């Protein structure tokens, strides 16, 4: 178990933090960016090397502070120029030090798909993501399975699609993965981290794919990826793309790290 883990970092607490952030106006913004959503699926399928979704985040419950808050758009530009197929931008202020303003300012300078990464529990967050130019939102299946959101995942997914946003459904367990495949979600993220304990097992992606296949979904491996050999292993077991945050944000040379992972064939 991570030395940074505390009971208040449970999934329920993370969801409660989202409601707190909503109440405090964290998703209110004067930005308005109108565009047709860029396809994360197309960006992944058209990538000639390893499709990376690189993450802009400054802190996390598992490791604490990762990096000082230098200009987020500059970090995003470096990632994009170094080979990232898409970006994931943390918008959750609590524990992750994210902001909807970061996504808005990155959108103005970046022309690849942007995933709004958050513990999404409400249409308020979806609307905010749309206003600031997100192309895709993350919905964590276990949040909805535990009834921690305002509505069920199917209705919130439908709402996001109606607003011209793509949806990445995140799972961790076999039952979650089976349900996601049966529902034929276009994008499924397999989180190698258990959000209740924060423990990481990079073989989780292999276990789920080997036992249940992939259907017609695009599978994105998340968490525990830090080196080229991790990408090579995950590609071999069936992952189509790779979401990488901490190992990139923690390095002094972001460009070199992204290039290293991007070139892992």
Describe this structure in words.
There is one protein chain. The chain is α/β, with parallel strands linked by helices and 265 residues long. It has one domain (7-26, 37-262): Alpha-Beta Barrel (TIM Barrel), CATH 3.20.20. It has twelve helices and ten strands. It has helices at residues 11-23, 40-45, 72-81, 100-107, 123-131, 141-145, 153-162, 174-182, 204-212, 228-236, 246-249, 254-262; strands at residues 52-56, 59-60, 64-65, 86-90, 114-117, 136-140, 166-171, 187-191, 218-222, 241-244. It has an eight-stranded parallel β-barrel, surrounded by seven helices. Helix 3 packs across helix 4. The longest helix has 13 residues, at 11-23. Residues 1-8 have low confidence and may be disordered.
Task: Give me some keywords for this one.
265 residues, alpha/beta, 8-stranded parallel barrel, two-stranded antiparallel ribbon, 10 strands, globular, disordered N terminus
The low-confidence parts are: 1-8
Largest sheet: 8 strands, parallel, barrel
Class per helix and strand makeup: alpha/beta
Radius of gyration: 17 Å
Give the assembly state of these chains. single chain
Indicate the proportion of strand residues.
15-25%
Shape: globular
How many helices? The count is 12
Helical percentage? 25-40%
Can you count the beta strands?
10
What's the SSE pattern? HHEEEHEHEHEHHEHEHEHEHH
Q: Could you name the CATH homologous superfamily?
A: Aldolase class I
CATH class: Alpha Beta
């Amino acid at each position: 178990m991570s030395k940074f883990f505390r009971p208040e970092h449970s999934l329920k607490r993370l969801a409660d933090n989202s409601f707190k952030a909503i109440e405090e106006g964290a998703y209110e913004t004067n930005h308005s960016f109108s565009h047709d959503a860029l396809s994360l699926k197309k960006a992944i399928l058209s990538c000639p090397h390893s499709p990376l979704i690189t993450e802009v985040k400054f802190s996390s419950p598992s490791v604490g502070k990762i990096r000082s808050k230098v200009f987020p758009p500059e970090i995003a530009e470096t990632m994009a120029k170094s080979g990232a197929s898409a970006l994931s931008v943390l918008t959750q202020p609590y524990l992750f030090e994210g902001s909807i303003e970061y996504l808005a300012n990155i959108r103005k300078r970046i022309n690849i798909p942007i995933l709004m990464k958050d513990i999404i529990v409400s249409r308020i967050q979806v609307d905010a993501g749309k206003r600031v130019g997100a192309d895709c939102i993350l919905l964590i299946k276990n949040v909805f399975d535990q009834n921690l959101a305002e509505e069920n995942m199917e209705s919130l997914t439908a709402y996001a699609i109606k607003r011209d946003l793509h949806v990445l459904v995140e799972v961790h367990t076999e039952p979650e993965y089976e349900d996601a495949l049966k529902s034929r979600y276009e994008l499924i993220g397999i989180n190698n981290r258990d959000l209740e304990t924060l423990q990481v097992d990079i073989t989780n992606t292999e276990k789920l794919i080997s036992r249940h296949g992939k259907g017609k979904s695009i599978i994105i491996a998340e968490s525990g990826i830090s080196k080229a050999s991790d990408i090579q292993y995950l590609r071999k077991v069936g992952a189509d793309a790779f979401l990488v945050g901490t190992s990139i944000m923690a390095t002094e040379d972001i460009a070199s790290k992204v290039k290293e992972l991007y070139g892992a064939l």
